[in-house]
Amino acid sequence: MALKDVQKTYEEFGRKDPLYAVLSEKGRSNNRWDVDEFMATGRKEVADVMKYASNLGLELSKGRALDFGCGVGRLTQALCEEFQEAVGVDISSSMIEIARSYNAFGDRCQYRVNTTDNLTQLDDDIFDFVYSNISLQHSPPEASSKYIAEFFRVLRSGGVAIFQIPSGPRARPRSLRSKIYSVKRGPLRRLWKRLRGLPPVEIHYINRSDVEEIIVESGARLIDAKQEGSVRGSRVSMLYCAVVS
User: Fold this and answer.
1) Which of 137, 163, 138 is nearest to 149 (CA)?
2) Rounded to an integer, what distance in angstroms lies between the CA atom of residue 197 and that of residue 194?
3) Which tens digits make up the pLDDT trace of 36-69?
4) Checking phi first, is residue 28 left (phi over 0); if not, alpha (psi -120 to 50) or beta?
5) Domain span at residue 12?
6) What is the pLDDT of residues 184-226, one digit of tens each?
7) Structural domains in the chain (count)
8) Residue (of 143, 138, 135) closest to 162 by Cα position
9) The domain spanning residue 182 has which CATH number?
10) Cα–Cα dist 29/199, whole Å
């Protein structure tokens, strides 16, 4: 599995149906999203996330926020209403181009293309908050594991990361299960999608215990991990909240 396949998929989405690629609600494909309505969903989501953090007893510094997997900036723009600055990062240059055209906050909002499995273009200790939703799941687990670790590198002491990624059966590196996973979740899934006339979107997971290990090894403390939605086969979507020590 390679990030180049993910990049190719979302570059095409950015050219053909960008809003639906970000939020694939029924009846919204073929550019049927209203932009204002679409952006309103981002404001509601960020408001809910702020309430979630508050209910956990967290006091967020409102300096700078990172939106990982920002797409066209649905959440980045909403984060600008809560923080002094926001940075959106995405693998697709076509998505970033659209995000910049939607930017209503001038220099307070920045967008960057990142096609690597790290965030080295971002300095250490520069963010107060990192948020990622329905994004990590589209990258192979080897890459998303590195991204999660990077969240805590770019956060300041006391900074908070809230991110979503599905959990599923644990697969040790180089094990038979890991090899089967790579084939099923990568090329076979993309082929099956194409045969059905659907975009070749990948959906990956990382076992909850592995995510928690990454958090601890990155010098952070897990505050909360909760299931979101229903269980789908052996997978369940999880939302994690962690704080840098």
Assistant:
1) 163
2) 5
3) 999 999 999 999 999 999 999 999 999 999 999 9
4) alpha
5) 3-244
6) 656 666 666 666 666 667 889 999 999 999 999 999 999 999 9
7) 1
8) 135
9) 3.40.50.150
10) 11
